[in-house]
Design brief:
This protein has 877 residues and is mostly helical. Helix content is 68%, strand content 0%.
Length: 877
């Protein structure tokens, strides 16, 4: 008690040095009569006396003394707040001390308030000098500290306009763009954001002030540092106020306070996460953001009103930050806006954890308004969708489910932008850790596509979001996916010529198959078919319906579905596929190579059921385009597989079949050898497009044939491929390089070729060489290290990708050869090209899963680095 009394007396003595008794009463009355909205210059006699003193030192002394006293005062609670408003309370020693303070100050109290208002007003002008800004900040601090003393309400110290003026002092950081990142180049994006933003003007924005704003000077680094340091002190004083003074009876002031604090939080535009996890220097904008968030959290207390309403106010003002359209900051770069979005969203999650149930309604409404007010631009929709998903993860399950149901209703909104935004939110939730949510998302997206079967965007979203869930560890989720596919595709298939086949709902199966191909999501659909084929008795009826669409409008989609179905359903009557191949194998352009590829899949999966009287003819028709090298590279592998399977069907016994295979493979390999020798060594004219395509087919065919008949591969083939792969620009013109006779088949050095191969040819040569090495260990021992060095040296993603595939195959076959070179493979996880690091990650994870690779050394740390990159992991899924 004695200590508090001594500090209070010190405060009164310091306040007396402001010489308030000499301040003209008429001047004070004019400020009060104007309701603290305007103020003239100080009376000349008082101004002369006042500025002859060390005003900055006086402000610092009285504020410091006040802080020491205020820190001894108890925090305000609901109980003592109610007691202070009651006339029946008994006055104790503390109360008498506070009454004494107000009694001694009462004569000069109004003069003190008007003087503090004067300094706040002057310090907020855009043409204010550094000293004036400093006095304004110190005056605002002093006003907050005076309000902290119990009894301030009884003596009417709180005035909403005066209070707002002191709060607006905090806006100096954003007004003067302290710590702001460089603005975007150009004004297009700024204009787009401004069109989405509700404009709020200060009541005192006159034309004269607008001119001052446009002519505002930028602060020097030292001025900016001093300003930020002082504003952080002001925020600390405001924090003292939040626990000792109630704003419950002034909801407008509470709303304005929250708005200003949210604006101050936008000072941090460089590091979102650092606000909440690191120690901050007193002169950093990061500390400004941190202190503003601490103040907002402190306001979430019952002494200021119902927590639900306070959280709702916070969500109302923080909404624009999360939408990346913060008020008054239209010139910030996209990166800065994203940082503001990130730390705003982190604070929302923090409020959810701290306030819990009483924050749920506010956050629920925030999410709804994020969906409603998101700007109609792809970048903004994507960021807002990410924020919604992140915040939803912190909601309880019952509220989560309630919002998902609202999403589903909102997805029927008449505005296309709203429907599109809902798709991005709904698709994100298919990866949710909660089983209930994943199940609900499958049902919701399936129902949504059922309502809008003609909407391509919904179809794509359904395929990308729902089909991968067939790999979900929970059987219930897998069952929902299978039910969705059956509901949208199989149950809607109608025979060709049906009266209803062209309605949007009945065209949906074909749209799904078309989109499935575009997205290359066949692996997920195949997994669905694996389960569906075991549980649906109508599968053979489905096959018959699909077959009747062959040669019709949906010919390509029909063959796509048949090719996948034939992998899980036995199609015994395969004559229709034989007929189709015989009719179109000589004219690929008529139906397209993709369709013929699907036909070959059907034949390969059903080869045992090819009619015996047609097998020999089919064998010849399959072999002819291979032997003549007239088939495109995209069909060579499938056609080679089909001929091989048919050979086994015709000859039965493994030994006999292998002899038969060698009989037709050996001539193909010989033809490849002769053609490569001619092109690489005997012709001197450059390759045109047609000859390059022909060489490409020979190289591709040689790789496939070498795996069927490795004993027919000679060393010259290895050397010719190495010549293609390791050829350097200009090497063909260098007479000093040794040349090896093209007839020499036992040479151990690559030969010099007569032209510069394209990247496409080099990349294919890597694959072909790898296939040949799988059956020739001695060659593999020489070639694997060379490929590893090329992996580090080349910059071409196509070559790198194919080397990665080749070395991965080698790792399975020759683990001891590849293991010392895996560092170069794992280094591709940091490759700048997305295709390369995606391939590297996928293949390395595959090797890990099959136990061909151990998670150790540098590989372990590189995998950890990739795991931190959520975007890369999603790309690789």
């Amino acid at each position: 008690m004695a200590d508090a009394a001594g500090k209070m007396q010190q405060v009164l003595e310091l306040l007396s040095k402001f010489s308030l008794n000499s301040l003209d009463s008429e001047w004070t009355k004019s400020v009060i009569d104007a309701d603290f909205t305007e103020v003239g210059d100080l009376p000349s006699n008082f101004e002369e006396h006042h500025f002859s003193t060390n005003l900055s030192g006086l402000f610092s002394a009285v504020n410091n003394s006040f802080r020491h006293w205020v820190d001894l005062l108890p925090n305000l609670t609901d109980d003592n707040h109610r007691m202070s408003n009651s006339t029946l309370t008994t006055e104790d020693d503390d109360d008498r001390l506070h009454t004494r303070f107000w009694t001694e100050l009462s004569d000069d109290l109004k003069k003190l308030m008007t003087l503090l208002f004067y300094y706040c007003y002057r310090g907020q002008r855009y043409d204010a000098r550094e000293a004036e800004r400093e006095f304004g900040i110190q005056a605002a601090s002093l006003y907050f500290l005076v309000l902290c003393v119990p009894g301030s309400n009884a003596f009417r110290v709180f005035h909403p306009v005066m209070y707002r003026k002191c709060m607006e002092t905090m806006r100096l950081a954003t007004k003067l763009q302290v710590g702001a990142a460089s603005p975007k180049k150009g004004r297009h994006s700024t204009t787009a954001r401004a069109s989405q933003r509700r404009h709020q003007e200060d009541q005192m924005n006159t034309e004269a002030e607008e001119e001052e704003e446009s002519e505002a000077t930028m602060l020097t680094p030292s001025e900016a540092t001093k300003l930020v340091r002082s504003l952080n002190v002001l925020l600390h004083d405001f924090l003292r106020l939040t626990v000792r003074f109630s704003l419950k009876h002034s909801p407008e002031s509470l709303d304005e306070t929250i708005s200003i604090l949210i604006e101050v939080s936008c000072s941090e535009t460089n590091n979102a996460a650092g606000i909440f996890v690191e120690r901050h220097g007193p002169a950093t904008t990061t500390a400004l953001a941190y202190n503003s968030y601490c103040s907002l959290q402190s306001l979430c207390c019952t002494i200021h009103g119902q927590k639900k309403k306070i959280v709702l106010l916070i969500m109302k003002h923080i909404l624009h930050n999360i939408l990346m359209v913060p008020r008054g900051l239209s010139d910030l770069s996209g990166r800065s806006l994203n940082v503001i979005r990130e730390h705003s969203q982190i604070f929302v999650k923090y409020i959810l954890m701290q306030v819990k149930e009483e924050a749920y309604d506010g956050v629920y409404i925030l999410i709804q308004h994020l969906c409603l007010q998101v700007p109609d631009k792809a970048e903004f929709r994507q960021k807002a969708a990410q924020s919604v998903v992140e915040i939803l993860r912190f909601l309880p399950t019952h509220l989560y489910v309630r919002l998902i149901k609202w999403f589903f209703k909102f997805s029927h909104n008449e505005k296309a932008g709203h429907r599109l935004f809902m798709l991005e939110v709904l698709a994100e939730h298919c990866r949710d850790p909660a089983l209930l949510i994943r199940k609900q998302m499958v049902v919701s997206l399936t129902t949504l596509l059922e309502h809008y079967p003609e909407h391509d965007g919904i179809t794509t979203t359904w395929i990308k979001a729902v089909l991968p869930l067939i790999l979900d560890p929970e059987v219930k989720v897998q069952e929902r996916v299978i039910e969705g596919v059956d509901q949208l595709l199989f149950q809607r298939l109608l025979p060709a010529g049906h009266a209803q086949e062209h309605t949007p709902g009945n065209l949906l199966p074909w749209n799904i198959l078309t989109t499935l191909t575009k997205c290359s999501y066949h692996k997920f659909f195949n997994k669905v078919l694996l389960h569906w084929s075991k549980m649906d008795n109508s599968r053979f009826q489905v096959v018959n319906i699909v077959k009747c669409h062959i040669g019709q409008e949906h010919n390509e989609e029909a063959w796509t579905l048949l090719a996948m179905l034939s992998g899980y359903i036995t199609i015994k009557n395969v004559a229709f596929a034989v007929d189709y191949f015989e009719q179109h194998c000589q004219n690929t352009a008529e139906v397209g190579s993709y369709t013929l590829l699907q036909v070959l899949k059907v034949l390969s999966n059903s080869m045992k059921h090819v009619p015996a009287d047609r097998a020999e003819d089919l064998h010849q028709q399959l072999l002819l385009p291979l032997s003549s090298f007239s088939v495109g590279a995209e069909l060579i592998s499938s056609m080679m597989d089909a001929v091989t399977l048919l050979t086994y069907t015709l000859h039965g016994d493994d030994i006999e079949s292998q002899k038969a295979i060698e009989k037709w493979v050996a001539p193909i390999l010989k033809a490849c050898d002769e053609h490569l020798k001619e092109v690489l060594f005997q012709r001197t004219d450059p390759l045109d497009a047609a000859r390059e395509e022909k060489l490409y087919r020979y190289l591709f065919t040689m790789g496939e044939a070498a795996m069927l008949c490795p004993q027919k591969v000679n060393k010259r083939m290895f050397l010719m491929l190495q010549s293609l792969i390791f050829h350097q620009q200009g090497q063909e013109e260098d007479d000093s390089l040794p040349t090896v006779p093209s007839t020499q088949t036992q040479c151990s050095q690559p030969t010099t070729i007569t032209f510069t191969p394209t990247i496409r040819l080099k990349a294919l040569s890597v694959v072909t060489l790898g296939k040949m090495c799988l059956q020739h260990e001695e060659q593999a021992k020489r070639i694997i290290p060379a490929l590893s060095r090329l992996l580090s040296a080349t910059t071409h993603p196509a070559i790198k990708n194919n080397i990665l595939f080749t070395l991965t195959d080698m790792c399975v076959r020759y683990a001891t050869l590849v293991d010392p070179l895996m560092d170069r493979v794992t280094a591709c996880l940091r490759d700048p090209h997305p295709q390369v690091h995606r391939t590297a990650l996928t293949l390395l994870i595959s090797l890990l899963q099959e136990d061909y690779l151990k998670l150790k050394g540098s590989f372990f740390y590189r995998i950890l680095q990739v795991c931190r990159n959520r975007k890369l992991l999603l790309i690789s899924c």
